[in-house]
Write a structure and sequence with these properties.
The chain is an alpha+beta fold. It folds into 4 domains: 173 residues; 185 residues, no CATH class; 163 residues, Sandwich (Immunoglobulin-like); 131 residues, no CATH class. 18% of the residues lie in helices and 21% in strands. It has a 5-stranded antiparallel beta sheet, with helices on one face. A hairpin with a 3-residue loop joins β10 and β11. α6 packs parallel to α9. The longest helix is centred in the first third of the chain and has 19 residues. The radius of gyration is 37 Å and the shape is elongated. 37% of the residues are buried. It holds the Pfam family Mtrc-MtrF_II-IV_dom. InterPro entries: Mtrc-MtrF-like_dom_II/IV (IPR054337), Multihaem_cyt_sf (IPR036280). This is Decaheme cytochrome c.
Length: 748
């Protein structure tokens, strides 16, 4: 193509561009927004936005004019500007850091205790009375605010509040009042929402933003972070669709209160409403009861496992104390709906920093306020759960005794979780797992067992002066591991010297001697393995895990429950791997019973014992309610209840056999050979299993027992006969199959 033609094309293009530009004003604009035939705002209207986010958030307050100005950009996840937002889409709260002594009320002592004056987060605006913060521009609680929202340009907004703060307590309309203090860090929290069709709120798209500043309107970091938000996010997620869809009846879904349907999943946002001094009241018609409505009180109460309604109906939430001496944090029914509240309130370290943390070792995502949970600085912390029944009405409250300073281990960190094993009462309860008995010698002369053993705690010998009621029991199981205990337990009192060396001579019960001294079998003793169980009490020093001596037979400190572990030895005194036959693996028990196998109120029953220790008394068809009956007892069985208790049923159903049994609850899996039934009697093995419940007056009346007994005899079973009589072949499993057992045993 020639240069001549190229030049003509360039000239034509230039003329065309000039003609187009002629349609624009001299300022280069393409006309006013919204004019007919002209482009409108570039972005998306808030009613059509699929997500809401803020950027470039900024706030400043003028004390002279009492005016708050908040500016921000509103965009979607992709950064596209969102236009059309109005004040109806926005919620704004403002607060500042304060000292707890500022949270005073009419004719009421300051919230702070004499020795402490914590930093707290306070609100400038309150609901009526003592409840938490109120939103600005709210005609009910902040009628003095004069509010306007202007869209400066597409997606950029200015929120102006004149007469932003109440100037007097009377104007604030609540019992709490905080004057403006420019020496403290200030902050605002803003919520942005949009409406869906039918005037429903789009909770999934709801957005929360915060901004902090200090003197001179200089931007500041978040001033108080007790917990990293990620700690909460591990369980609480904004994606809980079911919770977000709730518009009312908030208590119907337990995650509502930490979903976007109720101010999100961030404790930072929660703290703007549930300020550190917030109080709620409940009236029973005569008395008005107060309880903490702070973020701290709320979180600890929720994680007791109680529902919101339950919390109002127990202990200090409805009366001073509903159950004297009881702690509402632990006696409430556990609420485990859909995995909610997996952490117990008592498990402080699930959320808080370790009690050994210092300001120098604090994680980066928290402030030094994270250390306060074990500083024991205010009685309100205790009363969130415990009420005021124990000196709580005194001005010094709980912390005059319960502190974590100067070697005192009665404070919250120690009493609730951290190093609780160092405490005397907890240490006493766990003596069975902390003190070991090692059998160093055993001999059998046909009548007696002579046994030697060492008692140690860690690597230290335990002096006999710190122990009492030291007793050794002996029983036997088949050497092939196919049986339960086969005789009456034999027992005798042992002695332990100051070096922790114990000795005992145990006369064999006649039923045990008969097994080991079979005249027709000279090596009969080799067919059995001995179960040796030493049990004792220990004296544990107050406020420590150290043992101390009994003096004149009395322990001046804390006496442990009976502690015991069972070991298996051959008749020659050698350690054996053989164990009592069990239908449920011990590991299945310890999966839940991580700390103790016994949960009961009587403090001196066996604690931290293994199943074999329990079975020394609770035999297959024994002289006390058997292991089977104890474990399976349901709520309808008034005398003994274990896994059938309502609070246990909240964790798993008794009808879920596989929780405990590894496919081993068939009658074909019972022990082999005659089973000891107490008082020198024996039952055939399948009969022993059924008789544990069906022939026990602990669970059934005489008529049902008689019918079950007749059925067993008609089918060839033997109940409480001689050893020879009980050596029969049974066929109960022909009809009583695994499926039928599960079908007909509805334990719940």
């Amino acid at each position: 193509m020639s240069d001549h033609n190229n030049n003509w094309k360039k000239l034509a293009s230039a003329l065309a561009v000039s003609a187009l530009l002629a349609g624009c004003g001299s300022d280069g604009k393409d006309g006013s927004d919204g004019e007919d035939g002209k482009p409108g705002p570039i972005g998306v209207h808030i009613s059509q936005a699929d997500s809401l986010n803020t950027s470039n958030l900024f706030a400043e307050y003028s004390a002279e004019s009492n005016q708050l100005v908040v500016e921000f950009d509103l965009v979607n996840t992709n950064g596209v500007a969102i236009h059309g937002a109005t004040i109806d889409n926005l919620t704004l709260k403002m607060g500042r850091m304060a000292l707890e002594s500022e949270a005073t009320r009419d004719d009421v002592q300051p919230m702070a205790e004499p020795l402490h004056n914590r930093e707290i987060w306070a609100s400038y605006h309150h609901r009526n009375g003592t409840r938490g913060s109120a939103s600005m521009c709210n005609t009910s609680y902040t009628p003095y605010n004069e509010c306007s929202v202007e869209e400066i340009e597409t997606g950029k907004y200015r929120f102006v509040v004149d007469h932003a703060l109440p100037t007097t307590k009377e104007e604030g309309g609540a019992e709490f009042f905080f004057a403006y203090d420019d020496s403290q860090v200030q902050g605002v929290m803003m919520r942005v929402q949009r409406k869906l069709a039918g005037d429903k709120t789009d909770y999934d798209a709801t957005h929360y933003a915060t901004y902090y500043w200090e003197a001179g309107n200089v931007e500041a970091e978040r001033p108080k972070t007790v917990l990293a938000d990620q700690t909460c996010f591990a369980c609480h997620t904004a994606e809980d669709v079911k919770a977000n869809q709730y518009e009312s009846a908030r208590d119907e879904h337990p995650t509502y209160r930490m979903s976007n349907a109720h101010y999100g999943t961030s404790t930072e946002v929660c703290a703007f409403c549930h300020v550190d001094y917030g109080i709620r009241t409940v009236s029973d018609g005569e008395n008005t009861i107060e309880y903490s409505h702070s973020i701290k009180g709320l979180v600890h109460a929720i994680h007791t496992g109680a529902t919101h309604s339950d919390r109002r109906g127990v202990a200090k939430f409805d009366s001073v104390i509903a159950k004297d001496g009881a702690n509402p944090a632990f006696f409430l029914k556990f609420n485990n709906e859909e995995g909610v509240y997996p952490q117990s309130t008592a498990n402080c370290l699930a959320c808080h920093v370790d009690y050994t943390t210092t300001e120098e070792t604090l994680p980066e995502d928290v402030t030094y306020h994270a250390l306060h949970w074990f500083a024991d600085q205010d009685k309100q912390s205790c009363q969130n759960c415990h009420g005021d029944y124990h000196y709580g009405d005194r001005e010094e409250g709980c912390i005059s005794c319960h502190s974590s300073y100067d070697g005192n281990t009665r404070g919250g960190a120690f009493r609730h979780f951290s190093d609780h094993g160092m405490e005397s009462r907890h240490s006493a309860a766990t003596v069975g797992s902390n003190i070991d008995v090692d059998y160093t010698g055993l001999s059998w002369d046909g009548t007696n067992f002579d046994i030697q053993f060492n008692v140690t705690k860690g690597e230290e010998a335990v002096s006999g002066s710190a122990l009492s009621n030291v007793t050794v029991r002996v029983n036997a199981v088949a050497a092939d591991g196919s049986s339960q205990f086969l005789a009456n337990r034999s027992n005798a009192t042992a002695t332990v010297n100051t070096n922790g060396i114990g000795t005992v001579t145990v006369p064999a019960h006649e039923t045990l001697a008969a097994l080991l001294n079979d005249i027709d079998n000279p090596t009969a003793a080799q067919d059995y393995v001995l179960a040796v169980t030493a049990y004792f009490n220990a004296c544990v020093s107050n406020k420590s895990n150290a043992l101390t001596d009994y003096v004149d037979g009395q322990c001046s400190a804390v006496v442990s429950p009976y502690a015991s572990q069972t070991r298996y030895l051959t008749v020659a005194g050698e350690a054996s791997e053989v164990r009592r036959h069990a239908a449920a693996a011990y590991e299945n028990c310890t999966a839940c019973h991580t700390d103790d196998m016994v949960v009961r109120s009587s403090g001196y029953h066996y604690r931290n014992a293994d199943n074999d220790t329990c079975a020394q008394c609770h035999g297959a068809d024994g002289y006390k309610p058997s292991m089977m009956a104890r474990v399976h007892a349901s709520s309808s069985m008034d005398r003994v209840r274990a896994h059938g208790r309502e609070d246990v049923q909240a964790f798993f159903s008794m009808n879920q056999c596989s929780v405990c049994h590894d496919n081993s609850y068939t009658l074909d899996d019972v022990s082999t050979g005659p089973q000891f039934s107490g008082s020198s009697t024996y039952s055939s093995p399948q009969t022993a299993v059924c008789a544990s419940c069906h022939l026990s007056d602990a669970y059934f009346d005489a008529a049902k027992i008689a019918a079950a007994d007749a059925h067993i005899l008609n089918m060839g079973g033997i109940h409480k006969g001689t050893r020879e009589e009980a050596s029969v072949s049974e066929s109960c499993a022909t009809c009583h199959t695994t499926d039928n057992i599960q079908k007909n045993h509805k334990f719940n």
